[in-house]
Amino acid sequence: MLQQIIDRRLSGKNKSIGNRERFLQRHKEQVREAVRRAVDGRGIRDMERGEDVHIPKKDLSEPVFGHGEGGVREVVRPGNTEHVKGDRVAKPKGGGQGQGGGQASDSGEGEDDFVFHLSREEFMQVFFEDLALPNLERTQLAETPEWKSHRAGFVSDGTPTNLHVVRSMRGALGRRIALGTSKRRELHELEERLELLLKHENPADPEVQRMRVETEERIAFLRGRIAAIPFLDPIDLRFRNRVRVPVPSSRAVMFCLMDVSGSMDESRKDLAKRFFILLYLFLTRHYDKIEVVFIRHHTQAQEVDEQNFFHATETGGTVVSSALVLMEEIIRARYPRNEWNIYGAQASDGDNWHHDSGRCRELLAQQILPLCRYFAYVQVADAEQNLWEEYSKLSEEVGHFAMRKATEVSQIYPVFRELFKKEGARA
Q: Is the pTM of this model over 0.85?
């Protein structure tokens, strides 16, 4: 027997999501190019939005079936006022060649490209579809500005809209049973005694009549007391109780450390900016709240805003340990380890005062890394100086510290992928 299954479920609001995913897969290169352009023109915190993607109309063409030249065709021309049935219509002049709609006119204007908006999730998916945050451990914290209402049993006071009828009736029934049990038991005994008195051999006996009258009076009294028990009393009412509790959320802080001495020109700072942007975007996929701390250093370290971090210039030498010391001070003062997921990213050209590199390795190993979930160092220069040598020793000993080189813009993303690829794919 042939069976047929018909899906009659209604389509949801995202009924075209399948077509959209196939479209993005087909034009993935154009989408990636649009995302790369967005990285160039935005700040780190400005990456949490989508992007408009332009696709040339010629790339959207679909294969179609067409009729070849020649032959006899019968067609219906609506609105015809010149021909009648049976007329033969000659071919248009010009050798049968039509004018393509995609050709530019004399004014130089052609057809517009197809433009669609890439959502925030799709924007980040282009970067991070093959990545996973290493050593991910969500720390749940109580965010006081964010509250959620939860049920917390029942209370005797509340608004009528929160009245729980079943619970109230259950309480009323229990109260009526508790208050009337002893009276009903006594009433039942008196009714049996009255029945015996009415069947007495000598009902005219004064003693029997007195006992009967007393019994009838007590029965009437008990029935009145039982009838006086209210069916529903205000003390029986129960209302649903709801309390406000803080909503747990995961928080992370991202420390950006960068050398701004004279050897760090604008091109190297641009490389560092691209890496920091990628890290920030990556963390937004795993944490609800992210704070960014910018620390720039030459001979001294300073916490600054993003504008000064990337564009202010300094001269003189480099003492990298000053930035690490300031980072530890900020963590101790504002970001306790049991409340924040701490990530560090350092960018430098490798130049450092010779006697300071060993201290940098000690600060990282003993003070910084025990507080961090992950720390990544990116060198934007080829030369391997003493700082690279000291950090290389550390990378062999600590699993959540990684270091790579990136000297061109095209190398930033591969380096980032290598630093934050899935643990299962690590070499």
A: no
